[in-house]
Fold this protein.
Amino acid sequence: MAAADSLQKNPPAAIAIPGLGRALISAGKVSQQAAEAAVKKAAANKTPFITELGQSGEISALEIAETISAMFSTPLLDLNAIDPQQLPQELLDAKIANTYRVLALSKRGNRITVATADPTQQEVAEQIKFTTQLFVDWVVVEADKLQKLVEQAGKSVGESLETYSSSGDFDFDDVKIEDAPEEKENALGADVEDAPVVKFLHKMLLDAFNMRASDLHFEPYEHNYRVRFRIDGELREIASPPIAIKDKLASRIKVISRLDISEKRVPQDGRMKLKVGPDRVIDFRVSTLPTLFGEKIVIRILDPSSAKMGIDALGYEPEEKERLLKAISRPYGMILVTGPTGSGKTVSLYTCLNLLNQPGVNIATAEDPSEINMPGVNQVNVNEKAGLTFAAALKSFLRQDPDIIMVGEIRDLETADISIKAAQTGHLVLSTLHTNDA
């Protein structure tokens, strides 16, 4: 009797049925009991309500999709006609696709077509609009087929990246980013700690270093994505990962370079460090550039140890080596290193500076920016916006009692004129000139 009284005073809480379920009940397509059971199963299994309702036996997933399409005047699509390999996964972040069970199908102008089993989810449409900056056009599909396709699409990208990451001699545990911010998500909800993407990036950075590349290029195009290394002055294609990773990879690089992840409209510059093993640290300079199909990212390798490997590591012939050593041993004059981008001009200069860097010598350098940190050398970053040009830095150096001056690059007549005068007045001047070949 007491239990009955208790039930009367505290009746079981009503099960909250989603709006789509209520609409199906009102249309006479499913019963109240089936909808409530689907709500309970969805909560227990952490699956969408529509998926569980389609498995109730009272109504099929196809019948649900057809009813929803008619009720909300939304196009119906058969996912059997979709090739998973042809899906433009780059249009929508994988985390959004997995969380809300949606799939980007196409983009036209400022609109994106997205497959869903429930077009009534206005908050999902707003989230997609926020992340893609595109208006959403829904198409209705069967919930069970959609779930399988979302899982299949995500798996194929991960497997493809694992193929790149697992190739070659690479120990992921020995490599980590130094001083990386503790940030698991960016402002748009994209997972920047996605394991396949992290491993792929670390593999590319380490491969570039081991192959003695000067730069890495991450380039998004309309239908493909490629990674190129600049080796001996020439760009070589190294990998062609799935285009779907472009946003995740860009976010990951921007996070560890301490750049603004949400800003994709303007170029940004940053730096990061990669620790390899117990005591090897490699510096990288990062530059992002908005392009038609995403952010292109170029990473310059700045290995401080490269200048300390000695002049033999530069690969000069014996006669050239002797000529260079004789030139840098002079108390004054000018030494110019010429060559194309990535040919080793800066490393050559720093190798010379490393030999000349003695306690009794005053060395000053001007670069845009300084690429290799060298203790005992006064290094200056050129800042043209603030008026600190190469020429202005050179004029200041001459008032600083220098013995040796290094100018990152002679770009204009004024810098060339001051450099020559400095070389003629008792200073040893080292610099570079950009040429198409040596």
Summary: The longest strand covers residues 280-291.
